[in-house]
């Protein structure tokens, strides 16, 4: 796993997140980082890791060809990268992110019973413990 991956972790929405529920980012002619992340994760729960998502968004936004992606991924992670705690999904759009034991991610809407279980430090259904982190705040003021 790259250093941006999490395992057995739930990233809860930021304290200053304005969304009361998980909301899809708006569609625009040029998809935002949030829209790209949401599209990747919403359609593929527990398939991609944080590193997969971060690099796919980078590669898509920069038009990196499939054949060039292995080398580009290595170069991308040779530099420090922001983790998904800085993602607009948890800062603005009301999505929690659960990383399973293998680091694969799923979106969890803030309004769901599953979100409440994860936020309480338990995996829904089996009650196994999960580490809970908060998405980063949008503002520095408290």
Keywords:
142 residues; 5 helices; 13% strand; alpha+beta; globular; 4-stranded mixed β-sheet; 4 strands; 30% helix; single chain
Strand content: 5-15%
Question: What share of the residues lie within helices?
Answer: 25-40%
Spatial extent as radius of gyration: 15 Å
Distance between the termini: 34 Å
Description:
- The chain has 142 residues and is an alpha+beta fold.
- It has one domain (9-134).
- The protein is 30% helix and 13% strand.
- The protein contains 5 helices and 4 strands.
- The protein has helices spanning 33-42, 50-61, 69-77, 88-91, 113-119; strands at 9-12, 95-99, 105-109, 131-134.
- It starts with 8 loop residues before the first strand and ends in an 8-residue tail after the last strand.
